[in-house]
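Weekly structure sync, notes
Attendees: PL (lead), two postdocs, one rotation student
Agenda item 3: pending single-chain targets
PL asked that the sequence for the first pending target be pasted directly into the notes so everyone works from the same version. It is reproduced below exactly as submitted, 170 residues in total.
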Amino acid sequence: MNEKFPQDALSHFDAAGQAVMVDVGDKAVTSRQAVATGRIKMMPSTRQIVQDGQASKGDVLAVARIAGIMAAKRTADLIPLCHPLSLSKVTIDWHWVGDDAIACEACVRCEGRTGVEMEALTAVQIALLTVYDMCKAVDRGMIIEAVQLIEKQGGRSGHWTAAAPQQVFR
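Predicted structure, written out during the meeting:
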């Protein structure tokens, strides 16, 4: 077993190595928040189409924002061992990056017994995939990259921030 990641540190496995859903029933309900980011690189002409609102399928970032929010709410349906959570807030923000990329930031909050990191990461991925889907007719070479959790708050482990987050906004 790898010394850096001992089996007992992986909470989704029991002593026999079987996958299990973590029992969070004894954990306190606390305020939880997670922020994730990522970006999609594309041809400058594609980014200009999105920025100008000229995509044939409509307002790309508005549709992708709704997709990201819906994805956060449905994370437990997509990732087998995630707990279903009652989310109190999901925001998706967009940032123009240079002339060839769009960055996405998702912030997810809840009052619960487990964190919302997976919900924030899922929101970013699905929002960026939606941008890809809506723009693929003009640019199939788009690249989704640098998706990561950059901050989480609440719960037993408290506040955590990424030590060296990817610079998705430049």
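Discussion points:
- The helical segments are 44-52, 60-73, 75-78, 117-135.
- The two ends are 39 Å apart (CA to CA).
Action: rotation student to compare against the earlier draft before next sync.
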